[in-house]
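### Sample
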Amino acid sequence: MATANFCRPKFIHHYHHQHQNCFNLPTNLYFSNHLKSKRSDGAQSVRRRRQRWRSSLRVHCQAAATDIEATARAGKDRLLKVPISNIRNFSIIAHIDHGKSTLADKLLQMTGTVESRDMKEQFLDNMDLERERGITIKLQAARMRFIYENEPYCLNLIDTPGHVDFSYEVSRSLAACEGALLVVDASQGVEAQTLANVYLALENNLEIIPVLNKIDLPGADPARVCQEIEEIVGLDCSNAIYTSAKEGIGITEILNAIVQRIPPPRDTAERPLRALIFDSYYDPYRGVIVYFRIIDGTIKKGDRVLFMASGKDYYADELGVLSPNQLQVDQLYAGEVGFLSASIRSVADARVGDTITHFQRKAEQSLPGYKEATPMVFCGLFPVDADQFSELRDALEKLQLNDAALKFEPETSSAMGFGFRCGFLGLLHMEIVQERLEREYNLSLITTAPSVVYRVNCIDGDTVECSNPSLLPEPGKRRSIEEPFVKIELLTPKEYIGAIMELAQDRRGIFKEMKYITENRASIIYELPLAEMVGDFFDQLKSRSKGYASMEYNFIGYTESDLIKLDILINGDRVEPLATIVHKDKAYSVGRALTQKLKELIPRQMFKVPIQATIGSKVIASEAISAIRKDVLAKCYGKITR
């Protein structure tokens, strides 16, 4: 007996609603023509299949609608106002690669802020570079709703960068919080940047909750790390939370601890508005979007607001919270974290650390801690193709809209043509900007060696800041040269102390202090010229300690040094891009290394090419590329038939 052939309908009409696919059932099902001639039991079988299929689709549509309602309900829940006593503002601080972003992901997932199907690793790290390098570069924030003892709580997480280049951004985000999670790797222990961030948190009087992460690793030793934290930092670790963010262990305990141990914001809604900007970015359609925390007062949509440091005023076109996507609201109160859009054209008008207040009812005093981002490292960026100069300028201007710390000015080189002299916060900042220019704007770049800003005291009493050796005044016009110094703290296992101290001494370091923070680890403090750090210092530190040492540094000021300008002459012509400012004691070794390297790189010519390193008119190192010699008799030797 032939069985009936059941065929699906040729077309299923879809419509899109709130990112869910629902189905509009066709009125008639298409069957093969020969079904009409089959026996009645075959027709009944087809009808039963058709009913089952329709009912399954009906269930699917109901489930999809339920998901849509749940998502909408969750979004509304996060917008519901809670008493200020139920608000918790906290940050996560940690050394690089100790699991900060992974923990933030789990908190978002556990509180239902992000659906499981939308979840991805490093959810708050939006840039491709952040995901590839495993670091946080730009700040992010997220509003979470958590039910504790049948009461709704609003938890505002402010994510922070972990790298030393962005320590100012970390300090401003900590100033927007009342507490912090101190995340420490249970296998690696306390690192240099951990200490730096803890000190920043203590300066802001934050409640610190120790969290020992990665307890699932074979080498994890939470008891030892707890003892380290107590001895080095002085925090009580009796209530430390053991967790594995990757495996989801201990996440509920962290959420409970945030509610129990971090104090709520003060209720200062009656005071004049004061809001702290902790981040901003440029949107090509809406202008600058400002992330802020309200310290005092309230703000409504449409209010005229004043940025106290820049002196600019705008109207608040959009107001909302970050969850972590932007959700608009009409009003925000003291203690809350949100975003503001006011058709601001430049990030320079809404800098990190600035204070927002009402234009009419101004606050008497701005919030403390604001400072301008000062570039510490400079280098030249030149396009490989000279026709890309205008594209490079446009790309730098667009990047500067998002990065107020990036400075640049036009520069001309006889060897490399037109380019820009750019200033950065540090080496990582420089690498990130260069990589973004090449990747996002499809530019091929030549980068000159990084340098620092020197301060030249002239005989006539003027002081000149110089980041380019070609702009250094003549020896007869200058009285002295000062260079920037940093205080650097090196944390290392005791077996590498000798190698680390040798490295610091070679880089003109001035020894200040050494102490054992535990039985097996030491802290060494040096004062070091910044110019000695912008090269391969970090690479050498990791190499000599087999990756176990870590460092943290901060700028302490300018110190007079015996510095000179080292010029490179190729075939008698001075090459300005190769000029450098070096200490007098290192001039010979640097000059010798440069001339030898150039001899390897420059191809041979039909004539002899001398390469010289000079100080003024004195040659201190010299190499020569010999001429190509044509041997006219070479073919006369050996067997002539070959």
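The chain has a mean pLDDT of 79. This sample (Translation factor GUF1 homolog, mitochondrial) is used throughout the tutorial notebook.
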